[in-house]
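USER:
Try writing one entry.

ASSISTANT:
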Amino acid sequence: MNNILLLLSFMCCSLSVAVAQDLLTVRDAVGIALENNYAIRLTQNVQRAAKENNTYGNAGLLPTVTGNLTQNNSVQNSNQIQNNGEERSLDNARNNSLNYGVNIGWTVFDGFGMFARMERLRELEKQGELEMKRAVLTTIGDVITMYYTILEQQNMLSALDSSIHISNERLRTAQNRFSIGKAAKLEVLNVQVNLNEDVSARLRQAETVKNLKTSLNSLLARELDIDFMVDTLVNIDGALVYTDLLDKANQFNPDLQLIVLNKRLAELDLKNVKAGRYPVVRLNTGYNFSRSESSLGFVAQSNSRGFNYGVTASVNIFDGFNQRRNERIAKIQIDNASLLIEQQRLLVHTNLKTAYETYLTNLELVKLEEKNEDIARQNLTITLAKYTIGSISSVEFRDAQENFIAAISRFNTAQLQAKLSEIQLKELIGQIDF
């Protein structure tokens, strides 16, 4: 009886004890991923670039100021015949000219295209923020999914450790019974085979856990060999309501938000194209200095300086119907964006509906498999007691042992699938908590 209690105690504890010094919580894992993950960092840079581009100057609302300097020098052999018949010639005649100054140009009207471009830059910055949000949600979902997958496989590994411990005890009992003549050698051999099967399964399971930890470390963008334990507590939110999820998905789903924003960008592109029908008015001014020297000519040296100013206006009269073509294409892009919105909304609703049905099913399976695990545990306890006193065969005990391991596996799988369904739903509504 003491052996039975010891075995059951080990079997229960091995499924729940974690090494505190190497514990990695799901919050810690998400925090590390948000800081290190390459996909997030790349998206951050894209978002920062969109923010930098959102300026009045980039939209064309501000004037441009340029400084210019030009100097030309020449040495020539010149020969001139003037109107009065006088001939003048000079070898190595030098001619120099110098021009420099500051010029300002400012487009004051371009058919409101500059305002459309300014608004487009603002929308592109919002697009960068939404892309960033989507990358964060995807990464968090991947990290949490991997984390709880490791937990499922780690629990299975602990169950196999318990099974090996029980099989060792079975082998010791079978050997004792064989030594006193109450069991055949065949029983000892069968138990040894069962033990070897458990050890083999344990090796494969340990490899699975190790590979999953490597994958999580890769998601966290840290050293792949870092070992850790996961928190054994699985909190499943069982209070999700479909109508609430649907409302939030329509408002906050990042893919849907991005497509709605793309329609807005298409509308702004149409405004920018329509600006081509209007004249472009540009103001010009500047201050320039000019000096020239000539060894042969009527003017040996001249200097000038001062302001210049003016206005330039241009209008597109005919461009081969390209203006009309571009406007039609822009309108088609708006129609496509509207269709994509409806398509994406239907896809989100479909995914949400199927994910919610799966979520409800998995919640019921968690309750059922938890009961089955408890029944299998009680059955193993009774079977172990009977086997110890020799009232049942090792084959019957092995069946109870395998049923217990299978029940643990199904319960772990049910918990994982319920948690993954919860994560999928929250990712669809753009709001993952952990």
Summary: The beta strands are 23-24, 64-81, 87-109, 229-230, 280-294, 301-314. The chain has ten helices and six strands. The two ends are 43 Å apart (CA to CA).
